[in-house]
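User: Some background: our group keeps a shared notebook of sequences we're curious about, and every so often someone picks one and asks for a predicted structure to add to the entry. Today it's my turn. The entry only has the sequence so far, pasted here. Could you supply the structure so I can complete it?
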Amino acid sequence: MKKILSTLLVGLAMSSTIVFAAPASTSNDTLRTSSTPAKTEIPLSFVQTATEATLSQDPKESNIYVLTLYGVSPYITYVTNRPNRATGLALVNNFMKAWSVGRYSFKRINPNAVITAAKINKNLNTGNQVYIIQLSHPEYDIRRSKMRYYVRNLGPRKFILKELKMQGVTLVIN
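Assistant: Of course. Here's the predicted structure to add to the notebook entry:
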């Protein structure tokens, strides 16, 4: 199991999709990256947190926003879905490298995400407001602990302001 999890971490650096496959010569499962033939693909979901964030309308396009996360950890949490549950941490730098790797890369097929915050525009988020979005074009500044994505709203809740300021932010990427 430890070998599988360590291989999973290596695979995370290579791709956002990890693949389990059984070689023809043995019945033991081995872990391979999406660049090798496989029987079953196991997608990863990611959880990224930040102390603060802004969501601002792009001045060039009315339906595009820029999400800027401040106080971002250099690590991102990942989790697989059942039945092969696994969780762990990966460097955000490796997450960025994996963004464009593989046939199901986030660059080719932009991921969906859910964003929520403890406070929105200085008000406690007592209504548990969440926004369902699509992410693209990530940029990471490790020195400033800052991450930026371009965002398209997918959910029924529209962005009614040109800018939202958030504190205690959680972004779930899938």
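Suggested note for the entry: Residues 116 and 128 are 7 Å apart (CA to CA). The chain has one domain: 44-173.
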